[in-house]
């Protein structure tokens, strides 16, 4: 008698277990990922220049580009062959360029990507100063250019290198933040 | 001798501040300068350059700053310590030590408020002040005749 009762129960339990097993391992059907919204440029620039003026209206820096694409949402201009030029308070001229870069209109920051060449033009007091680094962030509002990458600054008689730099191009001053090394050639004994 | 090309001056420190207009670079934090056999260390090394960018002199500040060199033809190093040191590359090449200056080679020593060393003639001069007289300790017996 007991057997007649137990058998159907066992069948039911077995069916449930098999059902759980089958459904448990069934991979959740992957919902198709929503296509990432790709921002589109709303206008294009060619051979363009963006001028920045200080509070007194004096032009302080110019950003030129061979080609540019303006992206409205991120308020960014992607620039091909950016060339930046600025003037210090004493009139010395700084240049910087890189293969490509971007300009963030909302934060007024120019970003020069990859290899960046910076030059302080020679003047009556000083020879030219050339600086090589990467990924340079130029903040127009506080007239500082910063990088966290390796920096090598060279003039005719020597060089200084370090990791990370803050360049205040208004005051013609730069600080290399870490691992600073300098090398200065000396003339033959006089 | 002077016909040999002079070694470069190399400086290392935690960081450096460079004034591109005046040509002064200030190396700070565990600062060490080497120039051939010469070695100067301190907390801060200031590099002063000419208008062409050539290094003309440097100033070292330390607690104390330390100096070491092996003069040409000598077998024993000369050493010095002082709160402030100045090194001039030429005109003549010289090292000046200020503030509790002590300059020694082996057991011989010279101390005072300041000590001046002409690195081209190896002439050494010490100067005292109101608080500290200049003092020389020389062990004649142990110096070989040159």
TrEMBL record, chain A:
Gene3D superfamilies: Lipopolysaccharide (LPS) transport protein A like domain
UniProt GO MF annotations: glycolipid transfer activity; lipopolysaccharide transmembrane transporter activity
Gene Ontology cellular-component terms listed: outer membrane-bounded periplasmic space; plasma membrane
Keywords: Cell inner membrane, Cell membrane, Membrane, Transmembrane, Transmembrane helix
Pfam families with a match to the protein in the record: LptC (PF06835)
Tree of life domain: Bacteria
Regions crossing the membrane: 5-22
Annotated protein name in UniProt: Uncharacterized protein YrbK clustered with lipopolysaccharide transporters
Species: Halorhodospira halochloris (Ectothiorhodospira halochloris)
Top-level taxonomy: Bacteria, Pseudomonadati, Pseudomonadota, Gammaproteobacteria, Chromatiales
């Amino acid at each position: 008698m007991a057997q007649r009762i137990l058998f159907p129960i066992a069948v039911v339990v077995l069916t449930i277990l098999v059902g759980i097993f089958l459904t448990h391992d069934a991979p959740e059907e992957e919902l198709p990922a929503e296509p990432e919204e790709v921002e589109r440029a709303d206008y294009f620039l060619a051979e363009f220049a963006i001028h920045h003026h200080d509070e007194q209206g004096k032009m302080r820096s110019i950003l030129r580009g061979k080609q540019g694409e303006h992206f409205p949402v991120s308020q960014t201009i992607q620039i091909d062959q950016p060339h930046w030029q600025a003037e210090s308070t004493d009139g010395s001229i700084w240049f910087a360029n890189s293969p490509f870069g971007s300009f963030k209109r909302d934060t007024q920051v120019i970003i020069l990507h990859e290899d960046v060449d910076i030059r302080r033009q020679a003047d009556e007091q000083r020879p030219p100063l050339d600086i090589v680094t990467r990924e340079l962030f130029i903040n127009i509002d506080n007239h500082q250019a910063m990088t966290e990458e390796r920096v090598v600054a060279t003039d005719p008689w020597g060089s200084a290198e370090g990791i990370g730099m803050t360049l205040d191009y208004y005051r013609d001053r730069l600080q290399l933040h870490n691992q600073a090394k300098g090398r200065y050639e000396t003339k033959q004994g006089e | 001798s002077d016909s040999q090309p002079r070694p470069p001056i190399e400086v290392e420190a935690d960081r450096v501040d460079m004034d591109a207009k005046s040509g002064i670079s200030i190396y700070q934090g565990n600062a060490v300068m080497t120039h051939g056999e010469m070695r100067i260390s301190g907390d801060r090394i200031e590099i002063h350059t000419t208008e062409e960018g050539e290094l003309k002199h440097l100033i070292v500040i330390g607690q104390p700053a330390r100096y070491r060199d092996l003069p040409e033809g000598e077998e024993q190093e000369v050493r010095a310590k002082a709160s402030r040191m100045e090194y001039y590359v030429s005109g003549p090449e010289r090292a000046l030590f200020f503030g509790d200056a002590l300059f020694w080679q082996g057991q011989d020593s010279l101390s005072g408020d300041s000590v001046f060393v002409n690195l081209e003639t190896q002439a050494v001069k010490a100067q005292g002040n109101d608080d500290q007289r200049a003092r020389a300790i020389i062990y004649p017996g142990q110096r070989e005749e040159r």
